[in-house]
Amino acid sequence: MANLGGAAGTIESVNNTDSGNVPLLEVSDVTVRFGGIIALDGLSFSIDQGAICGLIGPNGAGKTTMFNVVSRIYDPNEGTVSFQGRDLLAVPAHGIAHLGIARTFQNLALFPTMTLLENVMVGAHSQGSVGMWRAIARIGAARENRRIRDWSGDLLNQLGLGHLAHVPAAGLPFGTLKRLEIARALAARPRFLLMDEPAAGLTHSEVDELGDVVLRIRGDFDLTVLLVEHHMSMVMRISDKVVAMEFGRKISEGTPDQVRNDPKVIAAYLGAEA
Q1: Domains in the chain, please, with CATH?
Q2: Are 222 and 209 in contact (CB under 8 A)?
């Protein structure tokens, strides 16, 4: 089953979960309809604190729709989503950063004319303590800007980008920009990181490096990660848990080995009968 992700890799994924705790994220019976199209059909799964959960499936399976429900871009027609026991669907999209949720994007959403440091600082401002009127009056703003600049510089150093801090993002290699987007997401000091196709467009060696980066930042920043990704080798190597989808429904959930060898998953990817 090499095409569903082998077990290659030298870094072990450390499971920081505690089965006795309430899941960090709990998705229950979520259904999303777009007119007559059912994008999600009663989907349920949960993610424990500290876990990396891979969300996989063929094109059109509903992965991006589920991602957009959790990041509050879409409202489901039915079902519930809770984050640390709180109703996430009651939180507007602009409020999820304050809950400790951040995301990266498949299509890079960076500011090309800004430096790498400035791009990361944009992410950090979502957690700033200086309000709009105080910022206008510059009351406490200088001190906060120094704090944000220092924190953003530290993040660039941790992701191997410190030497490019004052270089504009435009024209840099794609793999560098992918790490920059991760740094910007981390700048908001999240507890839960949503990663949307982070390996898209990368070379094989860059995909392997990215997998190591995700494992490292999970430990360094005490993160829980929901990973939507087509690169099965990376998903199966770094995930503690995998949820497989097809046509908006969950067809398998479990450890990477359990999901990799599930006949329903093999059928979904290879077109064989389960």
Answers
A1: 22-100+190-274 (3.40.50.300)
A2: no
